[in-house]
Amino acid sequence: MTSATMMPTMPTPSTTEARRRARARRPGQDWVTTARRMRCVGMTRATPSSDDDDERDGFGRDAGVWARARFVTRDAKTRLALPGNGSPQVGERPFSDQVFGFAFCVVTFLALGRVDDFFVSVRGVPFMISSWASLAVLAFGTVDAPPLRLWNVVVGQLASAAIALACVGAFGTGHLARAMALSVSLTVMMRLGAIHPPAGAVAVAAVDGAYVEAFGLWYVLFPALAGSLFIVCMSGACQWMKKRFEFELSDVSRAFARS
User: Fold this and answer.
1) Considering the domain boundaries, does residue 216 fall inside one?
2) In a domain, 100, yes or no
3) Does 28 have pLDDT greater than 50?
4) pLDDT at 12
5) DSSP symbol at 60
6) CA 136 – CA 252 distance, rounded (Å)
7) Using CA atoms, how far apart are residues 191 and 148, in angstroms rounded to an integer?
8) Looking at the domain assignment, is residue 179 inside a domain?
9) Phi and psi at residue 197, to the nearest 5°
10) Sign of the C-alpha dihedral, residues 108, 111, 116, 117?
11) Are 198 and 227 in contact (CB under 8 A)?
12) Is residue 256 part of a domain?
């Protein structure tokens, strides 16, 4: 064998050990190591300014009504919830949401009121259901709320109304029927992934008896589901306006000042 022909070089123990450690390294270990190094050298996340403290961390436990009033009056934005004790604010939206929510709510319930007048004069029973009030708060006061999805509205309303009618047939129109109708409706909505809070009021309203006597089994579809779908349709138009035409109160002030 000539000197040019040489045996293949065997890996040294140190090379083999390094490869073994690389293969055994857990996913994400680099991130852990990096985080440890950052703590060692004092690299910390930038601290937000004091103006954003309430929005990020919420009010302190000793904060009272005055702190919340001062937070609300600093601007005219729409909020789903103020910062709580240790929790941030939820659902901040522009001032225009209040304008469109008010306008669409008025128009919707004026239309439902005319239908209600017709049924009172013809059949002697109101068409309006109290659950539509809570549905209107969701429909015109929020944007993209999960309970307003079509599946939640249709399944929640149909299931609750049908369960209420079954409870009335089994237990009459007493407290037991009301408790069972609401509890079973809640369980079914949770199981089907169709949580819709106004549907609980639909179940309670059906147990009162007047709607069942006036509409019978049709109560499931009319007025319960029909009126709810009308409100949801108006909500879709309202939310389109909210997203398409956003403005703040300062924009309105400037527009009036120019005029």
Assistant:
1) yes
2) yes
3) no
4) 56
5) -
6) 26
7) 17
8) yes
9) -50, -40
10) positive
11) no
12) no
Distance CA(157)–CA(151), nearest Å, equals: 10
Task: Using DSSP, state whether 91 is helix, strand or coil.
Answer: coil
Count CB neighbours of 92 within 10 A: 14
Which of 102, 169, 187 lies closest to 140 in space, CA to CA? 102
Q: In whole angstroms, what separates CA 220 from the centre of its chain?
A: 25
Q: Are 79 and 90 in contact (CB under 8 A)?
A: yes
pLDDT score at 67: 78
pLDDT digits (tens, 9 = 90+) for 94-110: 999 999 999 999 999 99
φ, ψ of residue 222 to 5 degrees: the values are: -145, 115
The alpha carbon dihedral of 68, 74, 78, 79 has a sign of negative
DSSP string, 93-155: B-THHHHHHHHHHHHHHHHHHHHHHHHHHHHSS----THHHHHHHHHHH-SS-GGGSHHHHHH
- 164-221 tens-digit pLDDT: 999 988 998 889 999 999 999 999 999 999 999 999 998 998 887 667 777 777 888 8
Write out the residue range of the structural domain in which residue 153 sits. 96-244
Across the range 154-169, mean pLDDT stands at 92
Q: How far apart are CA 135 and CA 137, in angstroms?
A: 5
Q: Two tokens at 29?
A: 């270990």
Question: Using omega within 30 degrees of 0 as the cis cutoff, is the peptide bond preceding 126 cis?
Answer: no
Mean pLDDT on 20-39? 47
DSSP code at position 9: P
pLDDT at 50 over 90: no
pLDDT, tens only, 227-237:
999 999 999 99
Phi-psi region of 193 (alpha: psi -120 to 50; beta: other; left: phi over 0): left
How many domains does one find in the chain? 1
Q: Could you tell me which residues are beta bridge partners of residue 81?
A: 90
